[in-house]
């Protein structure tokens, strides 16, 4: 992801309708599974500038992981003592360290050449019956200039995401498109973009005015309410899945309070960024 995108993310992600709406949808998926649970060990794998990790603290102790220099510089103050430099392709944690792993817009990135190794690592660090909550951009035909800014390698359909998770040994519990009620807006914006010259336009994630931001946030709240009732959407700008790791694996007790292994520094550092 381009450096300015990290700076914009850090500045707006606690107020922007898109980030707030996506967190509401995450809560709609997770709250029914973990009612009144505050003791989970959670890994936000590809945490970017840390806004989602702050949200996830409602479920327990959260460790954020990212490899980008830009993310590391911006997230330290938000997650003091709970941020680890590392790659989703070689997680520096012991087997069976976490109850929940989140991956928000990470595996699509061109620095992740294939999803299978990253999903295998997520499954490795999950405890038996632990869960992965993953979100990815939807539909190759929706590629835009924003994809260039955030270094998109590919976009996905729900069927493709289900297949990737099943092949990695996960049982898919929920899978739905999101940002569906507002879907005509990004579709129209992308079609218009193709008719206009590329003048190096600014980020697509700038914060809109208060009235627009509130209206868009309300639409996302409606989506979250539907998902919370068990509903799903047949199309959308992103696709999300909740998957369970059904495994029986011995737990490596040789890890510290933040879940890192004693020899974490020996694991290879492979570039990963959150987008």
Annotate the secondary structure layout.
Blueprint (H helix, E strand, L loop, with lengths): L2 H10 L4 H14 L9 E6 L5 H6 L3 E7 L2 H7 L7 E3 L12 E7 L10 H11 E12 L7 H5 L8 H10 L2 E9 L5 H10 L16 H19 L9 E8 L30
Parallel strand pairs: 1-2, 1-4, 2-3, 4-5
Antiparallel strand pairs: 5-7, 6-7
Description:
The chain has helices at 3-12, 17-30, 51-56, 69-75, 115-125, 145-149, 158-167, 184-193, 210-228; strands at 40-45, 60-66, 83-85, 98-104, 126-137, 170-178, 238-245. The protein is globular, with a radius of gyration of 18 Å. The protein has a single domain, classed as Vaccinia Virus protein VP39 (Rossmann fold, 3-Layer(aba) Sandwich), CATH 3.40.50.150. The chain starts with a helix and ends in a 30-residue tail after the last strand. α3 (51-56) links the parallel β1 (40-45) and β2 (60-66). Mean pLDDT is 87; it is low at 249-275. With 275 residues, it is α/β, with parallel strands linked by helices. It has a 7-stranded mixed sheet with strand order 3-2-1-4-5-7-6, sandwiched between helices. Helix content is 33%, strand content 19%.
């Amino acid at each position: 992801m381009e450096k300015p995108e990290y700076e914009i993310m850090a500045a707006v992600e606690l107020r922007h309708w898109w980030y707030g709406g996506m967190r509401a949808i995450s809560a709609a998926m997770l709250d029914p599974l973990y009612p009144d649970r505050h003791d989970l060990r959670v890994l936000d794998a590809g945490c970017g500038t840390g806004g989602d990790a702050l949200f996830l603290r409602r479920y327990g102790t959260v460790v954020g992981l990212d490899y980008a220099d830009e993310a590391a510089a911006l997230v330290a103050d938000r997650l003091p003592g709970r941020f680890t430099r590392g790659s989703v392709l070689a997680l520096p944690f012991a087997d069976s360290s976490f109850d929940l792993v989140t991956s928000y817009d990470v595996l699509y990135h061109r620095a992740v050449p294939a999803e299978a190794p990253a999903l295998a690592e997520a499954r490795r660090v999950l405890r038996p019956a632990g869960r992965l909550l993953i979100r990815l951009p939807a539909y190759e035909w929706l590629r835009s200039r924003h994809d260039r800014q955030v270094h998109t390698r590919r976009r996905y359909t729900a069927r493709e995401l289900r297949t990737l998770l099943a092949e990695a040994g996960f049982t898919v519990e929920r899978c739905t498109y999101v940002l569906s009620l507002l879907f005509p807006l990004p579709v129209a914006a992308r079609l218009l973009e193709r008719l206009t010259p590329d003048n190096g336009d600014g980020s697509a994630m700038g914060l809109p005015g208060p009235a627009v931001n509130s209206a868009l946030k309300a639409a996302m709240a409606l989506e979250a309410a539907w998902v919370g009732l068990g509903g799903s959407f047949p199309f959308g700008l992103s696709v999300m899945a909740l998957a369970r790791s059904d495994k029986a694996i011995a737990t490596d007790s040789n890890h510290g309070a933040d879940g890192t292994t004693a020899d974490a520094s020996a694991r290879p550092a492979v570039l990963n960024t959150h987008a």
